[in-house]
Amino acid sequence: MGRLISEDYADGSFVMIVLAKGALFFAADLMREIKTPMQFEFVSAHSYQGKKSSGKVIINANIRTELRGRRILIVDEILDTGRTMSQVIKILKKMCPAEIRTCVLLDKPARRIEKITADYSGFEIPDEFVIGYGLDLDEYYRNLPDIMIAKKDRA
Question: Domain holding 7: CATH number?
């Protein structure tokens, strides 16, 4: 994926917006594979409580990098309902970037509510709650080195 992003942005730099906390692991690995000059910022965004989406997206976007006229790549660990990504895009559009693209490690289309598709996607997964490699359950298990399905008895 890093090679493809490097090729797509070969004609200039871009700003990677990493959705914290979950995308941290994926973004760190992805950045090391991208050969194009880039800057990055973190945006805090979440909507889950336990295994359920609250339906409300909470976003803290304290971005210091000037985004006007810049190309942006939003990186998240998972595209699930699409609410978080849609809300982040809406906020970033107000900063007048030249373009916004999206990149996710995992795509879970079975849960999609918003009409959104990632520009770059690693793997499509079934409708299971997954943890590890940045993905959490109530802020736990992000540190697991692998992605795995959370046990059903945890709610």
Answer: 3.40.50.2020
Which listed residue (76, 80, 107, 136) is catalytic?
80
SS (H, E, C) 91-105: HHHCCCCCEEEEEEE
| pTM recorded for the entire structure | 0.91
Instruction: For residue 6, give its domain range.
Output: 2-126
Q: Is 155 a domain residue?
A: no
Query: What pLDDT, in 10s, does the model give residues 44-87?
Result: 987 655 556 556 777 888 899 999 999 999 999 999 999 999 99
The answer to whether 45 touches 104, Cβ cutoff 8 Å, is: no
Look at residue 122 and tell me if it is in a domain.
yes
* Cβ neighbours around 55 below 10 Å, total: 9
CA dihedral 109, 63, 41, 134 (to 10 degrees): -50
Q: Give the residue carrying structure tokens 């007048």.
A: 96
Q: How many domains does the chain have?
A: 1
CA distance 144 to 12: 35
- Helix (H) / strand (E) element for 107: namely strand 99-107
141 CB-contact burial (10 Å; exposed 0-12 / middle 13-18 / buried 19+): middle
Please indicate whether residue 80 is annotated as part of the active site.
yes
